[in-house]
């Protein structure tokens, strides 16, 4: 059965993820989408603030995938693939790329952010999963860890956030169905087709130190496989990726 989405729109919220989590705990069904014009307390990965001025897309999708956390985490790849599909159609002359784990780049600049949060149930399976998605449509932060951009700056005539959300949900439904049928391996070819840095030397900045090596592949659970200069392979589950020649400025 295909997923059915129900969009709940708000002018302003603290965080769409927080509100979606409240709905999840109250028993809301899979497919609920919380969208807001503005967030007062938006956040990204690793506790970073996510600027949320009006005109961009801020939404959170509630899923109930009935699986263990490590498997559910691979749905971040379904999310970025779906958004990449949409932007490839809207900006056919631009270079759309995936950067591990779940960033989407246009011309090497970050345009979106994804944040997964989940709650457990008996047997270690998740009771719910919330996927938060932010897309820079008309503006982007002046300073960030990576170079950033927005859709207007990349030449896309202003698209209403609600219209972009509709296009995204249509694509996400397809990839979610593929994931439910074939797991993460069903998503891997699509992710790799736009992957940045695959087969190249990269730098992975962890919380307390930096790794450098060749990005050789993804593991079955989406873990980055990094071949270090001494030849051994390091599995990286979290970190900030930069191409070896790029800067964080």
UniProtKB/TrEMBL annotation:
It comes from the Bacteria. GO terms for molecular function: biotin--[biotin carboxyl-carrier protein] ligase activity. Pfam families: BPL_C, BPL_LplA_LipB. InterPro entries: aa-tRNA-synth_II/BPL/LPL, Biotin_CoA_COase_ligase, BPL_C, BPL_LPL_catalytic, Transcriptional_repressor_C. Keywords: ATP-binding, Biotin, Ligase, Nucleotide-binding. Its EC number is 6.3.4.15. Residues 1-180 form the BPL/LPL catalytic domain. PROSITE patterns: BPL_LPL_CATALYTIC. It catalyses: biotin + L-lysyl-[protein] + ATP = N(6)-biotinyl-L-lysyl-[protein] + AMP + diphosphate + H(+). It is an enzyme of class 6 (ligase). This is biotin--[biotin carboxyl-carrier protein] ligase. It comes from Dongia soli. The lineage of its organism: Bacteria, Pseudomonadati, Pseudomonadota, Alphaproteobacteria, Rhodospirillales.
